[in-house]
Task: inverse folding
């Protein structure tokens, strides 16, 4: 007689699990089923569960400005709203840029981009951004950007940006990058060159 896992179901948040084992004969005839539960102890530090610390989202709810006409459901302020499902920045053209004002100079070592097919977004992987970069500009002493308006776009066009990192040929749903050298800037620009 051999046993196979017929079902493995987690019946509560993290700790207790219920298992169902069904036995089969050598000829494949189904035998009896036994169910049992295990109350797992609390997760062990450095155990099997990966711990992913995203760190703080410095751009969350910050003013954002775009250079291209957005789609009906893709306004640039959705880039920094912190919501994944049914929320995105999307423009009519195949290239464009979005600028986020962090409010003050911040030192950046790592950055993430969650694309159209990231978990929770549910769009086609063909909609993921392929070629893009992260640029920054220091505090120029002028007033903060106020949002996607003419005054803010005019202000952004006077800034001199430095490329911090560039991605080409992206195939990932989430791009998570560490910079070779940290940089400090108040205004950050994501320039998108190509979608699939």
Result:
């Amino acid at each position: 007689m051999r046993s196979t896992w017929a079902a493995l179901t987690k019946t509560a948040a993290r700790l207790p699990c219920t298992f169902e084992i069904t036995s089969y004969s050598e000829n494949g005839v189904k035998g009896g089923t036994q169910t049992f539960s295990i109350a797992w102890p609390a997760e062990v530090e450095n155990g099997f569960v990966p711990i992913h610390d995203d760190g703080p989202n410095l751009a969350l709810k910050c003013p954002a400005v775009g250079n291209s006409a957005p789609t009906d459901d893709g306004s640039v302020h959705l880039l920094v709203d912190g919501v994944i499902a049914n929320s995105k920045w999307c423009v009519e053209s195949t290239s464009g840029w979005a600028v986020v004002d962090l409010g003050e100079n911040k030192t950046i070592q790592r950055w993430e981009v969650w694309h159209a097919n990231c978990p929770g977004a549910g769009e086609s992987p063909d909609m993921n951004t392929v070629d893009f970069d992260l640029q920054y500009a220091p505090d120029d002493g002028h007033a903060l950007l106020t949002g996607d308006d003419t005054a803010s776009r005019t202000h952004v066009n006077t800034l001199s940006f430095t490329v911090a990192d560039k991605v080409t040929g992206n195939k990932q749903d989430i791009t998570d990058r560490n910079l070779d050298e940290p940089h400090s800037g108040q205004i950050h620009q994501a320039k998108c060159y190509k979608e699939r």
User: Anything to note?
Assistant: Confidence is low (pLDDT under 50) at residues 1-13. The longest strand covers residues 174-195. The longest helix spans residues 150-157. The chain has one helix and eight strands.
